[in-house]
Design brief:
Blueprint: E1 3-6, H1 44-60, E2 68-75, H2 87-98, E3 100-105, E4 108-116, H3 121-124, E5 132-136, E6 139-146, E7 149-161, E8 180-199, E9 202-216, E10 223-238, E11 241-260, E12 265-269, E13 274-276, E14 279-281, E15 287-289, E16 295-298, E17 301-314, H4 318-324, H5 333-339, E18 343-344, E19 348-349, E20 352-353, E21 363-367
Parallel strand pairs: 2-13, 13-18
Antiparallel strand pairs: 1-8, 2-6, 3-4, 3-7, 5-6, 7-11, 7-12, 8-11, 8-17, 9-10, 12-19, 14-17, 15-17, 16-17, 17-21, 20-21
Helix pairs in contact: 1-5
Length: 369
């Protein structure tokens, strides 16, 4: 068989299917329900209804249990209309999809929540994720239950495909930055090149067996003896033509995580409040680190001293949340009642407004001393 190759432009598909978020999506409750809590003869529908009721009750009890209902915006990537058949487009999407902003309670470092496209509680496997979310245009509003207190941005992370996992290490005597540091960890990304290959027509040979008459009575033409004969017949199984091909390539990349020592933005909340705040989102590249400040700290990790952090401010509007979010329509009537108390709480932003540009909003930055 003659095999010819005809090259096409590289295109990509996701290594795993990318499931874009629907307008509203309920997330699993803080405490998983034990199987014994559900009637033995209840089916999946009954179990889902029971989960909804438990989840809904968490918001109804937020005030009495000393919790805070918090709504925070992040970027809605559904609005991008990403072409997942293109490598470049897919890799840019992965950067944004992986971006996470971490907020930490300064009185209790274990009290944290994470804001990003994929930070539902069920996705990250911890109570740091959101319980519910709703899309308004290019903004994804995420709903959390958190402890009261003073919160500040403690970390930001995202993936960077198509780049070296590490940086050249610096010399001895590297000084720690007053702003904090970043860690670089290797991560592999799959890209797929699609093309076409010429293939000749293919055939198969079948053996046909027949029984034939070998002797005939002369008087009346009656067959008096038979014999078996076989012969081969060739038939086409597929026509000649160009066949589509997909080839996978693994490309090098890194996960970049910033650990901040200086305040970028903060807010305060008290028990029982229902609060909406503005969000901060990493639109990569968001970090600059000092030249020659990197060193290997673990087998598969480097640390570099931060010089600057830039984040995009996502403006939150109470009207937007209430316009598109009627939790009762999704089986959460108690949550819907609680969210009627939603009020906007301005952040205390210590970062300075920057001249940087982002399609998502104004850019703010903070630098090392």
């Amino acid at each position: 068989m003659i095999s010819l190759l005809r090259s096409l432009s590289p295109v990509a598909v996701m290594a795993a299917s990318i499931s874009l978020l629907a307008g509203c999506a309920p997330i699993a409750p803080i405490q998983p329900i034990a199987q014994t809590d559900i009637m033995q003869d209840s089916g999946p529908d009954a179990e889902a209804i029971e989960l909804q009721k438990r989840e809904d009750q968490l918001f109804a009890d937020a005030k009495s249990t000393g919790k805070v209902v918090l709504v925070v915006p992040t970027a809605s990537l559904d609005s991008l209309n990403t072409n997942f058949q293109n490598n470049d487009s897919t890799m840019e999407f992965l950067k944004l999809r992986s971006a996470v902003t971490e907020w930490t309670n300064t009185q209790d470092s274990t009290a944290q929540f994470k804001v990003g496209y994929d930070t539902q509680k069920t996705a990250i496997g911890s109570p740091q994720g959101s319980y519910f979310q709703v899309v308004f245009g290019r903004t994804l509003y995420k709903i959390y239950l958190i402890d009261p207190g003073h919160y500040t941005i403690s970390g930001v992370s995202y993936d960077v495909p198509r780049t070296s996992a590490y940086e050249p290490p610096g010399d001895h005597g590297i000084r720690a930055s007053s702003l904090g540091y970043i860690t670089l960890s290797p991560k592999s990304f799959a890209e797929y090149d699609r093309g076409e290959r010429w293939e000749d027509a293919s055939y198969t040979t079948d053996t046909v067996q027949e029984e034939r008459c070998t002797a005939v009575r002369v008087v009346n033409g009656e067959c008096v003896s038979t014999g078996k004969y076989s012969y081969e017949v060739q038939r086409q199984t597929s026509p000649a033509g160009w066949r589509k091909t997909i080839q996978q390539r693994d490309v090098e990349g890194r996960t970049v995580s910033a650990h901040l020592s200086k305040d970028f933005a903060s807010f305060d909340v008290a028990a029982g409040e229902v609060v909406l705040i503005d969000g901060f989102f990493a639109d990569p590249p968001s970090f600059e680190y000092k030249e020659g400040s990197c060193r290997q700290t673990q087998q598969s990790q480097m640390r570099c001293e931060l010089q600057q952090v830039r984040l995009v401010k996502l403006i939150a509007e109470v009207d937007q949340v209430l316009q598109v979010l009627n939790a009762a329509d999704y089986g959460f009537p108690k949550m819907a009642e609680v969210l009627k108390q939603l009020t906007y709480r301005p952040l205390k932003v210590l970062a300075k407004k920057s001249t940087g540009h982002s399609t998502w909003g104004p850019v703010y930055s903070v630098q090392a001393d």
